C-alpha cells in the first residue's frame, strides 16, 4: 500500500483493474521479487489513458528500470516512438530484452547514462515526458524537460508524494529528509511555473500532471 489514500479504496481500485497477462505479468512478478520499482497498477492505467487522450506519438521517459512503463506507453500509442534514459547498465540490459520480447524494439530507444547530462543534448520535441527516476533529482531534470515538451504537451511526474512524507513532517523518515525537502521544492516550483498548469493526484505514490501552456 502507498500510504497516500485509504487502503480499502486503493485495494478496491486495484481489484477492479484488468489483470496484466503474458510479458507484463512476468515483469510485475520480476519487479516484486527483485525489489525493482515500477509504476503501480492504477498509475499504469492512468498513463494509458493520458497517452490516448493526448493522441501521443512521441514520449521521453526518464528512468527506464526494466522497461515496464515504456512498454505500457508504447502499446497505448500504437505507432509512436519512445525514448527512455536509464543510468544503470543492468537495468538497460533487462529492459532491452523485455522490449524485444514485446516486439517494440523499433519503437523504443534506450539511452544509457545520467539524465542530467543527456537531457540537454536531446533533439526534437515530445508530446509527453515522464519523470520516474531519482526523486531527489527532479529539479535538475525540469528545465530541460520543459524545453523538450511541445506546447500542449504533458509532463507526468511520478512518486511525488513519496509515501505521504511530502504532506507532513510527522511522516518523514529521518534518512529521507533531504529527498522530501527537494520534492517539496519541486512541487512548489511546478505548481507556480508560468509555463505549466499542474494538478497533483493522490494516487499510487502521488502523480503530478503538468500541461505546457
Note down, in words, how this protein is organized.
The protein contains eight helices and seven strands, in the order αααβαβαβαβαβαββ. It has 213 residues and is α/β, with parallel strands linked by helices. It has one domain (7-212): Rossmann fold. Strands 3-2-1-4-5-7-6 form a seven-stranded mixed β-sheet, with helices on both faces. Strand 4 (126-131), helix 7 (138-148) and strand 5 (149-158) form a beta-alpha-beta unit. The longest helix is centred in the last third of the chain and has 16 residues, at 177-192.
Helix content: 40-55%
Count of separate DSSP helical elements: 8
Which residue ranges are poorly predicted, with pLDDT under 50 across at least 5 consecutive positions? none
Structural class: alpha/beta
Q: How many whole angstroms does the radius of gyration measure?
A: 16 Å
Average of the residue pLDDT scores = 94
Named CATH architecture: 3-Layer(aba) Sandwich
What is the CATH topology classification name? Rossmann fold
Span of the ends, CA to CA: 34 Å
How many structural units, i.e. domains? 1
Strand order of the main beta sheet, please? 3-2-1-4-5-7-6
Beta-strand segment tally? 7
CATH superfamily: Vaccinia Virus protein VP39
| Elements, N to C (H/E) | HHHEHEHEHEHEHEE
CATH C-level name: Alpha Beta
Report strand %: 15-25%
Summarize the biggest pleated sheet: 7 strands, mixed
What is the 3D shape? Answer: globular
